[in-house]
Structure prediction request, 291 residues.
Amino acid sequence: MGVYNPSMTFRPARAPTLEPISGRSTVATRLTVGISLAALVLAGYQSGRAGPDSEPFSPGETLTYDLSWQIFPAGELVATLTRSGQGAKDAYEVKATAQSKGFVSLLYTVQDEFRSVFDPHTLCSQSLSKKVNEGRRHKNTQIVFDSARKLAILDERDLATQGAPPKHAENAAPACVEDVISAFYFIRRQPLRVGEQIRLPINDGSRTADVRVEVQALEKIRTPLGTQTAFRVEPTVFGGLLKRKGRMLMWFSDDQQHLPLRVKAIISVGTITADLKSVATPPAVPPPGKH
Prediction:
């Protein structure tokens, strides 16, 4: 079994010791992280990565997922890619929303919004914002990644606790780091090979975690989009990252798009599944640098 470490190519140097991310995770955060972490854990700057002429996604694309808990419909997650800025300020922006529905919504209301801004060429994250509204929890978080100073700058407000002071912290981070949303698109530029492992860092504003993921198999799965051949992968970071024992499995389509078709989190409260149900794609546009 091969182990690929992207830091051996042209990625910025990383600290030799990486620690797991700290902090409390929430139900909807696990749902959103489940999908986007799938991209993160396999994404690396590989020497054989897809070039600009085979870009698997473009601004205007929207991916919609059905979320379920055990056998019950739980909600919907939507991720839309857009483009902002020009020239040196050119950037991709992804808005991802998670909303509870049906029976689960009666037990626990969720309405979260995540926004990630990242470089369209390197896919290094520039910022991540989170608006979390889950039950009685209401929290706004803004993370800015300063690549020049190698810092993750965190600002957070607890809106549910009256008089709670805002939190501000500046923590060390690699010059090029992934967040849980930008990473969603890393994987889709990369070739996948059964039996390989890939290591890379993920940062959520506090600390940086070293993620190791195994590409386990190529198999057929059935989703709302039909039966497709997909790569099954599993990250070992799941338990430490989300502060729970469990497993997370992901399936990516065996084609140029590498669509994340399914994410399954097996945790103490049951099994949470996200199935891709629709893909809306814009008209063809030139990839970055080809305007």
